[in-house]
Amino acid sequence: MYDLVIRNIRLFEGPFQSGLMDLAIEDGHIVERGQHLAGSAKDELSLDGELVIPGFVESHLHLDIALMNSFQVPGREEPYLSHYGLNDTLERRRKEFSEEDIITRAGKAVEMALRHGVTAIRAQCHVDPQAKFRHLNALLAVKEQNKERMFIQLVGFPQQGLLQHKGTLDLFREAFKLGLDVMGCAPNLDRGVSYKEHIDAALELAVELDVELDAHVDLGIPWEIDWEDLEITYLARRTKDRNYAGRVTAGHVCALGSIKPEYVGKVFELIKAAGVNIISQPDMYRLGRDDRQHVRRGLTRVKELLAAGINVAFASNNVRDVLRPMGNFDLLEEGLILAYGAHMDTVSELEAILKMCTYNAARILSLPSYGLDVGNKADLVVLNASSPSSAIVDQAEKRYVIKSGRVAVVNTHQNMPGLA
Ligand SMILES: [Zn+2]
User: Fold this and answer.
1) Alpha carbon distance 81, 85 (integer Å)
2) Centre of ligand 1 from the C-alpha of residue 78, in Å
3) Which of 133, 224, 227, 313 has the highest CB neighbour count under 10 A?
4) pLDDT tier at 18 (50, 70, 90 boundaries)?
5) In three state form, how does the secondary structure of 191-249 look?
6) What's the CA-to-centroid distance between 323 and ligand 1, angstroms?
7) What is the pLDDT, as a whole number, of residue 252?
8) Nearest residue to 157 via CA among 187, 177, 178
9) What is the mean pLDDT of residues 346-364?
């Protein structure tokens, strides 16, 4: 007897138009897939052609600072000054954080994300001489508390650089012994240190410890920049030199939009040769604020990167914190924002958006057994949608979220996140 059978569904993988399918689940895994499956189950969901996708993957989320703003009155309390101005505010306000605060907020964030169908998160976590392991200890506790219902991978985010304060690299070595999973990189936060030195330090430590590297690069949007001066160009070259293909991810990459179109292919070749993954964050919100006419949107070249065969995902990045006062850990919502920003509106482009926050993002986290094939982990979302493009355009309700083969969430309009 199966643990759970889901009947009369459309599957995101394969020819989903070809007819309604059933999925059978046992011991947390998909064990059968076909039409009109025989056999009984302890639980059964009998549906009406809803779209089933593998769980959403939040590939870049600052979980330790998420929800630090007022939950009841969301929105920015202080004016938007500059990226550095916001960072100073973050540094000041995070001094008030205790481990308990972070655990409470991150726990609520995990709850909200799960209700929106997220089943895996790559979480950025401050590691620096001032915060030391306060954020890490808190997120390790959240990871443990939620291990049955959310896969969490922790990236050490160098909030105060890697080289500007002596001893920071040793602090990271210690953090990996405590349970950190992935090395972080943020050249813009290492004051007085060149981006090349910062990237080298981060990549060398990742190679030394045999862990993946997750980098913030090219966060600005200069009016023009030489392709050789992009941080992604340097990161891709160094990744190739170190034979670290497939183990490096670069977020933001906004300045890629500022190079002359005739050189874009050269950068793409380097990214492909180095096997670097790209994540687009909602940078439209942050960038172009000083422009007085034709405000730049500040997104990376999402469509062109996808067309070049590079693995591209998108992620929430900041949710209701100093850096972005909006967000719901809802990748359908972020996907719609991306659709507008990146001019992705054909049926196949909207389908690509749904793939970016599922399959492409899962590749970045190296999630094992991900997808709708028999034998894979049963982390699934039943969307009240008839096709991938309708999931985005309708902002489909996530009727059921299934984690490790068990129905973890049943959503109705009454219990959608944020309304309680
Ligand atoms: Zn980030």
Assistant:
1) 5
2) 20
3) 313
4) low
5) CCCCHHHHHHHHHHHHHHHCCCEEEEECCCCCCCCCHHHCHHHHHHHHHHHCCCCCCEE
6) 10
7) 97
8) 187
9) 98
User: pTM score, two decimals?
Assistant: 0.96
Residues, Cβ < 5 Å to ion ligand 1: 317
Distance 61 CA to ligand 1 centre (A): 7
Residue 231 and residue 199 in contact, taking contact as beta carbons nearer than 8 Å:
yes
Q: Write the pLDDT tens digit of every residue in 82-98.
A: 888 899 999 999 999 99
In whole angstroms, what is the distance from residue 249 CA to residue 215 CA? 6
380-383 vs 398-403, strand pairing mode: antiparallel
Q: Which residues contact 365 (CB under 8 A, 6 or more apart)?
A: 57, 59, 120, 122, 151, 153
How many angstroms does the Cα of residue 59 sit away from the middle of ligand 1?
A: 10
Tokens standing for 25?
């689940």
Q: Does residue 33 contact residue 24 with C-beta atoms inside 8 Å?
A: yes
The pLDDT of residue 77 is 84
Q: What's the 155 CA to ligand 1 centre distance in angstroms?
A: 10
The pLDDT mean for the chain works out to 95
Of 11-20, 334-343, 388-397, the poorest mean pLDDT is in 11-20
CA nearest neighbour of 380 among 2, 74, 6: 6
Q: Give the Å distance between the CA of 217 and the centre of ligand 1.
A: 10
Side-chain-facing half-sphere of 49: CA atoms under 13 Å: 7
With contact defined as beta carbons under 8 Å apart, do 8 and 22 qualify? yes
- Residue pLDDT, tens place only, 238-289: 999 999 999 999 999 999 999 999 999 999 999 999 999 999 998 888 899 9
| CA distance linking residue 5 with residue 46, whole number of Å | 8
CA of 391 to the centre of ligand 1 (A): 26
